[in-house]
Design a protein that fits this description.
The chain is of the alpha+beta class. It is 43% helix and 24% strand. A hairpin with a 5-residue loop joins β9 and β10. α9 packs antiparallel against α10, α11 runs parallel beside α12 and α12 packs antiparallel against α14. The relative contact order is 0.05.
């Protein structure tokens, strides 16, 4: 049926029900004050947009009496705008905010619009009730994003001012309202995504336009790239290609419009290297044209350090396996050779007897270091005095120190008993003192200071030797990392292992040409 047939059918239906066209019905269905406030709150954004377009529309037809109404999807009147005379006229009929204006009120554009979900108009005597015969009413539904009808927007004017273009104008206004609402929702969604992206404190983010000019960035990006000033507004509108660390990858995206994912970067501008993972993604508009480029940086410095630790652990495992093999393959024949030479004695006429025995002792010491590294050692803790252990070590090393013209001075400021494995702590002291003597090829001084502080017995070994640069100091204790021609890099690794098993602390500082300080702390008692 066309509109006229539908209107005629509805009017016939009301007559068959016995309704009197001269008596406008009492509209009893309405929202309570609380329900109306809740609905107005729900529709607020739609009503604000409608009001914006309505005001523009009303300003173009000044002098023409027009009323604009908004209902929800059930026909409850939410808002009325327009000529005061029209507002008073419909109020006398009981049509006020909160009332339900549906099919029970007779043939009208609002109930027909909601029933058939499309624009409708009712002019003059097309209304069933005579009270509305002097009016021309136009209604159009407005929709949610999913297409469901959310309510109606209606125009009401005198029948003398009726015009066929008013329904077309109303439909255009509804289209504008729906587009504006969709645009607002999309913008709100994009704003939320933008804020989530830019406010992420675990990654640096920079956004550029299609030409590579910076539109936005977050503080984390500023910090990662160490940009001067710390104010992102200084860089907005500038080319991202000026940022040397990331520029080659943005340049690739600009040239080829292809994403760069998982690029590992190393920043060597500071004393310690920093590592980042970079993603650069092109963003295209609906037409497939490049409109934005987004770059994200994640700091993976700690991950790289963890990888280094894992590599060192693998070296340590290998060193342990190698140590066990060396111990089995060398110690037995070494003991046999040493025993036979000792049995012959120094009077046997063997040339360089003392030198041979000295070298055999040194080989035995190297094998012993490998055994400490390769085999789990049972730790026997007991209370002991550091100075007593240190004196025993000094008595073992004093000859070597004298041969190298090295003076050792020991100062005890305060001593407390420690719980330790005596033999392992002796090994620690011996390794540190050997390193200190070797760092004094032309002779020098080693100062040993004992003091108690912060629950630890602290022992400092201070030499005035050749010292170490920062890059050597950072790797000290790694297996097979050494600066000595005859070294294996195991001595300090054993020191670190023993100190850790005693729940102690170790700190090494050094400066080339000035010397090295090794400070350890062993828990008191």
């Amino acid at each position: 049926m066309d509109d006229q047939q539908i209107i005629a059918a509805f009017n016939a239906h009301y007559r068959q029900r016995g309704l009197d066209p001269a008596k406008f019905p009492v509209l009893s269905k309405r929202y309570t004050t609380e329900e109306l406030e809740e609905r107005l709150s729900f529709y607020k954004e739609y009503i604000d947009i409608i009001l914006f377009f309505v005001n523009k529309f009303l300003s173009t037809i000044q002098g023409t009496p027009i009323l604009v109404t908004v209902t929800d999807q059930w026909g409850y009147l939410l808002e009325c705008y327009g000529e005061p005379m029209f507002l008073e006229a419909i109020a006398e009929l009981g049509i006020t905010k909160g009332v339900r204006y549906n099919e029970e009120t007779g043939t009208g554009s609002v109930p027909l619009c909601l029933r058939f979900k499309r624009p409708f108009q009712t002019l003059g005597e097309e209304h069933f009730f005579e009270a509305l015969h002097g009016m021309a009413c136009y209604s159009a539904p407005f929709h949610r994003e999913d297409g469901a009808v959310l309510g109606t927007l209606s125009l009401m004017t005198g029948v003398d001012s009726a015009h066929p273009h008013l329904l077309t104008l109303l439909c255009t206004m509804v289209d504008s309202v729906e587009r504006e609402m969709l645009l607002r929702r999309n913008n709100a969604h994009l704003h939320t995504l933008n804020q989530v992206l830019l406010e992420a404190n675990y990654q640096g983010v920079v956004v550029t336009d299609a030409a590579g000019r910076i539109i936005d960035m977050n503080d984390q990006y500023l910090r990662m790239l160490r940009l001067d000033g710390g104010d992102k507004h200084l860089y907005l509108g500038t080319p991202v290609l000026e940022h040397r660390l990331v520029s080659p990858y943005f340049e690739r995206v600009l040239a080829r419009q292809e994403e760069c994912i998982g690029v590992e970067l190393q920043d060597t501008r500071m004393n310690s290297d920093s590592y980042y993972m970079l993603d650069v993604l092109p963003v295209f508009d609906m037409g497939g044209c490049l409109c934005r480029i987004i770059g994200t940086l994640r700091d993976i410095t700690e991950m790289k350090r963890t990888e280094e630790v894992l590599r060192n652990t693998e070296k340590l495992v290998f060193a342990g396996q190698l140590a066990v093999g060396i111990a089995h393959e060398i110690r037995n024949p070494l003991t046999t050779v040493k025993g036979l030479i000792q049995l012959a004695g120094p009077t046997s006429g063997l040339r360089h007897y003392d030198l041979i025995m000295s070298e055999l002792d040194r080989m035995n010491l190297i094998v012993g270091e490998f055994l400490i590294l390769g085999k789990p050692q049972e730790i026997r803790f007991r209370e002991d005095w550091c100075m007593t252990i240190l004196q025993e070590v000094l008595s073992l090393i004093e000859i070597e120190a004298a041969k190298n013209n090295v003076r050792i001075r020991c100062t005890c400021i305060r001593e407390e008993k420690i719980s330790c494995d005596r033999n392992q702590i002796k090994q620690v002291f011996l390794n540190i003192l050997k390193n200190a003597i070797q760092a004094l090829p032309g002779g020098g001084r080693i100062d040993i200071v004992l003091e108690a502080d912060g629950g630890y017995q602290r022992i400092r070994f201070i030499d005035n030797g050749i010292g170490m640069p920062e890059e050597v100091l950072e790797r000290i204790g790694e297996p097979f990392h050494t600066t000595k021609l005859e070294g294996y890099g195991l001595g300090m690794m054993i020191v670190k292992k023993i100190i850790a098993s005693h729940r102690g602390i170790l700190n090494i500082t050094s400066e080339p040409g000035k010397g090295t300080t090794v400070e350890m702390g062993l828990p008191i008692g």
